[in-house]
Design brief:
- The chain has a single domain, classed as Porin.
- It has two helices and 15 strands.
- A hairpin with a 4-residue loop joins strand 1 and strand 2.
- The chain is mainly beta and 272 residues long.
- The radius of gyration is 24 Å and the shape is elongated.
Length: 272
């Protein structure tokens, strides 16, 4: 799980965005404790009972997004229902480009990943929660706790298309054709001299296959104004997902069915 320069850049962008949002004014809040339960209210004396938020996540093998619906049970406890999607890259994926027409015929070929067979995306459905260690609720105060969730996962295995150079039989002409990997075109797909570049994201959806499994995650949760109407938080932790079979991402490397990654999440939303 080596942290690449690309991941460092993603983390830096998230942190800069978060620091900028922290300058927004937060509403005053108050925690009213009764003998039966803790009622959480904002400055307008409105009781807060639910929250809706969105996640932007970067992890050591890609990035992701999620939607969360939470039920505020007490000052220290929120139960969460989530649905999200993450990209999952093989650690040996390396983007490169190779100009098969150097000199005057050069036409700026597109970058591609040599040996890649499929792109992989995981959709997560989860139930979990957030638990806070303290009830720090003053203006701009930081509540620290932990989060956890888990549930079923569906993997989407989308064929990776390359623009391949196919010459005519007399070798006097050629055409560039977008193709996924097959046993029949292996001599072209794995020949760097006949690869013009990656075809693009839109290719492969019609031949997508599925994998089924489960996922879980847990980490530390930092919430700026946990009892405000505005949700503004950072999560950092570990995420695990596994599937019923190996996911064929690469042709030239070993593939696996279990993925373990570190993650950083920016969470924004609203409580009511």
């Amino acid at each position: 799980m080596t942290i690449t320069n690309s991941l460092k850049l993603k983390i830096l962008v998230l942190l800069c965005l978060f620091i900028g949002l922290d300058s927004l004014s937060a509403q005053e809040e108050e925690v009213v404790v009764t003998p039966k339960k803790v009622k959480i209210k904002n400055s307008d004396s409105e009781e807060l009972s639910k929250e809706i938020s969105f996640d932007v996540k970067v992890h050591t093998s890609g990035f992701g997004f999620a939607f969360n619906y939470g039920l505020i049970r007490s000052a220290k406890k929120t139960d969460m229902f989530t649905v999200g999607i993450v990209t999952m890259k093989h650690p040996r994926e390396i983007k490169q480009s190779f100009d098969v027409f150097p000199g005057p015929l050069s036409n700026s070929p597109k970058a591609f990943i040599y040996g890649k067979q499929n792109s992989f995306y995981g959709m997560h459905f989860g139930y979990g929660g957030k638990r806070y260690f303290s009830q720090k609720a003053k203006r701009r105060g930081v509540a620290v706790g932990y989060n956890f969730s888990g549930g079923p996962a569906i993997g989407f295995v989308k064929p990776y298309h390359l623009d391949l150079i196919r010459f005519t039989e007399d070798m006097n002409d050629f055409e560039i054709v977008s193709e996924p990997y097959t046993e029949e075109n292996a001599n072209l797909f794995l020949n760097i001299g006949t690869i013009y570049g990656a075809s693009g994201f839109i290719y492969g959806f019609g031949k997508m296959k599925f994998a089924f499994g489960a996922h879980a995650k847990s980490g530390l949760h930092f919430d700026w104004g946990v009892y405000n109407n505005f949700v503004k938080a950072l999560d950092v932790g570990i995420m695990i997902e596994g599937y019923h079979r190996k996911i064929p991402i690469m042709l030239t490397e070993d593939n696996k069915f279990l993925f373990v990654n570190l993650y950083l999440t920016l969470q924004l939303g609203k409580r009511s």
